[in-house]
Amino acid sequence: MTELQPEVTALDSETLEFASQIADQVESFLIALRAIAQEADGGRAISLLLLEISQVLLAGARLGAQQDFTPIAEYQPDVGPEADLDEMRLRLADMLGPVDTYGLVFDPYVPELTESQLSDDLTSIASDLENGLRHYRLGNVTEALWWWQFSYVSSWGNLAGVALNALLSIVAHDRLDADLPVDEEEQIAVADEMLESGDTPAR
């Protein structure tokens, strides 16, 4: 469980417990993502990423269902330098290979198809979550909750959603053996090979 430094706070016990649960979910996601990148097992990675993103999206949905948290100060308190996640990003990109790049529509109400990379988006999600976790560990509970909630709505929630959809697409093509346009066949063949090279772990 993520440890919280002692602080004098006006937050009620229910909010503190909620923050503790979110912090644990965030920490679990960050640990798992680093482990997936480190192990570089393509077959297991797709299933594990699908599981971990689904779980962190549950944390985001819980944050989104709360009333808006308000930071205590106008500016975020200094929590030190951001974690260096570039090595993890490069490992993810290398592991995912041709299925790293995918098409996404960030706003379905203003549809514009763009290209993105799963490795970049997963790292961006991790960066947002890690920033809030540093606030939490320093005892800035209200700031942590505000940041997690704000960045969920403005950034990482959407990225996690489109990344989840991309991973589901890989699994669907593998399981359903759908007829594909010629220009997609090579990419999906790689995805099939990745999935077949590892067993889905029991969880």
From TrEMBL:
InterPro entries linked: DUF5063, DUF5063_sf
Domain of life: Bacteria
Listed Pfam families: DUF5063
Classification via Gene3D superfamilies: Protein of unknown function DUF5063 (1.20.120.1550)
Protein name: DUF5063 domain-containing protein
Organism of derivation: Nocardioides agri
Lineage: Bacteria, Bacillati, Actinomycetota, Actinomycetes, Propionibacteriales
